[in-house]
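Asparaginase: structure tokens wanted.
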Amino acid sequence: MVESEHRVALVVLEPDGTVGTSAGDVHAPVLARSAHKPAQAVACLEAGAERDDLLDDTELALAAGSHSGEPEHLAVAAGLLARFGLAADDLGCPPARPLGLAADHAWGTRDPERLAMNCSGKHAAMLAACVARGWDRAGYLAPDHPVQRHVRDALERLAGPVRAVTVDGCGAPAFATDLVAVARLGRALHRAAPGTAEHRVAAAMRRHPDLVAGTDRLDTVLMTLLPGSLSKVGAEGVLLAVLPDGAALALKVLDGGARAVGPVLLEVLGRRGLDHPEELRTLAAPHVRGGGHPIGAHRVRL
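Answer:
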């Protein structure tokens, strides 16, 4: 029997930019949320372009990711803040416990902290850009602040028009685009010329996939196991991925159910003849279990 169903909209842009596969309304506005983080990292780099030392590759990967709150993640974010004379209290994101299961368990009974919030790397990069440009740090999350105007400009240049603006869970502006625009962002990152900010961001994510997410997280596992890929999930069932063959995938689970993201990704990989290790399948589409044993599976109908 079918226990639950999730409806998904998705688009795959082929390496030449044409639409290869689509399902659902891929032109409806969606909040890609953290799937837009690579564009936000690009904007921070461009805003502080006069500083060659603005962000190193580890800081860029963290800024473009949603980290699990593991010790290495916190150390990179804290180090970036310290380099610019900042502290965790300067972050505008709310206090939180680590996003990763193991990191949250290790956190124990400690109070939530801003540094542990999964977006702290992005916020630290935005603050670093503010310091580099001499912009007011106090209002850096306002949509009309210079750093957020840079974010919007970068997103529209790399992806497509912004259709609406609201507030993300971390307090930063959340820009609505459509799924075709999200896929265009992935394609722009993949095809970027060396020396550009987008090329640096993509290279940093590929070099440091452990900083983009964390242990047993889809982004990290996908980029580790499939060389050349890029991956960035977003809250409410969103995924931006560049596949090993150079195609760009964007999908949105309409009910926000994140568990449907992995099975759809595997289906797209399979239909394109792209092999993937069992480790990725185990993470992305785990069996439904009963009494400790597999009793069901996720199925995709396109």
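Residues 120-133 form the longest helix (14 residues). The mean pLDDT is 96.

Cheers.
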